[in-house]
């Protein structure tokens, strides 16, 4: 039930981290993929890895804040593979950090546009394509930040990620009768190059925020995305699934 055999999926933010790990896992589980991100070279490397393992993949680089790009990704999935069954709207940024009093309007808009408006644009074109297939699974990468925890200096990020949970709930209610499940995935800290660059003390602090006393490997978050995308989660919709290593409940 955790397979995606013959499913067609779009993954944004696929050039690194959670997106890349999820693309590799979805392909391993039988999905035909359209992978999206800004960085063409990294997408091509990912595509080479997927094809080398026997998978099918198409690449389209662009900016998720661009409505024409959201439409083009769905068109590519339809023309190349015949439709769309799964969309993992994963692209996002932390954005400019600091007190709201010092945050520029441009920085606020950039963070909201990338983390929330881009998800709306994706869904706008993905949902009709899924309806044509008789249903599908739509996923958004949200965060524990703004949902269970307030983090100083992260107002724009928190607002955008919290907005994704509201968007998830509204879309799940609107399209459930059409066989479309909509869920938000809320990771905790994830092992990325930015985290690796921290000092040992800084890394220990981040690890210690989690009940498991470590951050996630990207592959672990990919497994949670696979669950939500697959038939194993056939009765799960409108959910905000925490895969955060206990950062939301930890006080030790």
Shape, principal axes of CA atoms? globular
Within the largest sheet, what's the order of strands? 3-2-1-4-5-6-7
List the domain count as a whole number. Answer: 1
CATH class: Alpha Beta
Uncertain regions spanning at least 5 consecutive residues: none
> What percentage of the residues does DSSP assign to strands (E)?
15-25%
CATH superfamily: NAD(P)-binding Rossmann-like Domain
**Class based on secondary structure composition and strand pairing:** alpha/beta
**Overall helicity:** 40-55%
Order of helices and strands: EHEHEHEHEHEHHHE
Number of helices: 8
Our measurement of the CA-to-CA distance between the termini, rounded to an integer number of angstroms, reads 37 Å
Reported CATH architecture: 3-Layer(aba) Sandwich
Radius of gyration: 17 Å
Work out the number of β strands: 7
Largest sheet: 7 strands, parallel
Question: Could you characterize the architecture of this molecule?
Answer:
The structure is a single chain. With 252 residues, this protein is of the alpha/beta class. It has a single domain, classed as Rossmann fold, CATH 3.40.50. The chain is 45% helix and 15% strand. The protein is built from 8 helices and 7 strands. The chain has helices spanning 17-28, 40-52, 67-81, 105-132, 155-175, 193-196, 200-208, 218-229, and strands at 8-12, 32-37, 56-61, 86-89, 136-141, 180-187, 240-243. A 7-stranded parallel sheet has the order 3-2-1-4-5-6-7, with helices on both faces. Strand 5, helix 5 and strand 6 form a beta-alpha-beta unit. Helix 3 (67-81) packs parallel to helix 4 (105-132).
